[in-house]
Amino acid sequence: MPLQVVQLQVGTDAPDFELADADMHMFSLNAQLGKQVVLYFYPKDDTPGCTMEANEFSDHEDEFVRYDTIVVGISRDDCISHATFRDKYGLSVQLLSDTDGRICKKYGVLYEKEACVEHGRSIDGHKKLAIQRSTFIIDRKGKLRHVLYGVHAHGHAQEIIKLIKEMK
After folding, report:
1. Strands 36-41 and 69-75
2. Nearest Cα to Cα of residue 14 among 130, 167, 143
3. What pTM does this model have?
4. Cα separation of 26 and 14, whole Å?
5. Which domains, ranges and CATH numbers included, belong to the chain?
6. E strand or H helix at 156, and its extent?
7. d(CA 102, CA 104)
8. Among this protein's residues, is 50 annotated catalytic?
9. 162 pairs with which residues across the strands?
């Protein structure tokens, strides 16, 4: 059965969740009410685009703090992979593990892609689930203020800072 993807809309409540971080501590979105949250979904730890994105978010930590905003990354990697990734690059963003893709589905960031492709053709015809790089800005009341699907890693943190500055 094909994956049914429902994209979220600005102005709706951000779907609540609880996931473990790189240190295996539980993170609850509802516990963040009163703060702004940048929730970004990325495909895989320690890959070029994902490393660039995580480093850029970490490099701008002071600006996010200035606007009372926390930055949280989610992928389907496990907690151990997240800890290794964080420590290797000195990342300050909190990384959450969604190994079963349950939260990725809630946020509409999963899609099916060919599992093995050579020269633009599927070799075995199998598909696997992948994460579409996406970011959600959640306001202090838990509402989605910005919903960005299919973003590019380079310069994305600066784009998010600009959007946060414009929020009233």
Report:
1. parallel
2. 143
3. 0.89
4. 18
5. 18-166 (3.40.30.10)
6. helix 156-166
7. 6
8. yes
9. none
